[in-house]
Amino acid sequence: MTRILIVNGHPDPDEGHFVHALTDAYADGARAIGHEVRRIDVGSLEFDSVRNLADFEKGTPPPAIRRAQDDLLWAEHWVLAYPLWLGSMPGRFKSFVEQALRPNFAFGPRNGRGMPKKLLKGRSARIVVTMGMPALFYRPYYRSHSLKSLERNVLAFVGIAPVRASIVGLVDKLGADGRKRWLARMKYLGAKAV
Predict the structure, then answer these.
(1) What CA–CA distance (Å, rounded) separates 5 from 75?
(2) Mean pLDDT score across all residues of the chain
(3) What is the DSSP code string of 14-43?
(4) DSSP 3-state of 108
């Protein structure tokens, strides 16, 4: 059994958003098999943005972020879900990532070759991105910019591998059948803990 942390990065806690349903389905599938699941809903957390380098490097994370860091360390597999806003992750979710994945928690001092130590090795992740545009358009035209940035510049940087992705395009036009298929897919992925 796998210890799974689901981070719902939607900044609005209103349960009507499809990101919430997708993360619920993943959790349901995981729990049904016996995986341990914890959840962080970024839209419900109280924290400020990191405002300067000194705070990022040496500041004390707010209490909600310290609790989130405990969950991040506990988990063997992360699920990071967010809606695509203006071509990237919502600012609130980006602030969460900056607050949580600080130096000496997510990465350590540079080695002799100038590369920082990856402190979160041994974990895998799945990124789930919802968007209004077609997923097929997002991949070649925008080159999955937001997804690749999170994958390469954040998760790989701190040692998370492998990282898999699910891109849910045309989210507002899916209809009942399309939503049902995506929820079944998330439930299946949760059961497999991938």
Answers:
(1) 6
(2) 95
(3) -TTSHHHHHHHHHHHHHHHHT-EEEEEEGG
(4) strand
Q: What is the pLDDT of residues 39-59, one digit of tens each?
A: 999 999 999 999 999 999 999
Topology of domain 3-192 in CATH is Rossmann fold (3.40.50)
128 neighbors 186 (Cβ within 8 angstroms): yes
Number of Cβ within 10 Å of residue 111's Cβ equals 9
Q: Is the pLDDT of residue 141 over 70?
A: no
Q: Give the residue from 190, 180, 72, 86 showing the smallest Cα distance to 132.
A: 86
User: What span, in angstroms and rounded, lies between the C-alpha atoms of 58 and 100?
Assistant: 13
- CA dihedral sign of residues 98, 3, 124, 111: positive
Tell me if 145 sits within 8 A of 167, measured CB to CB.
no
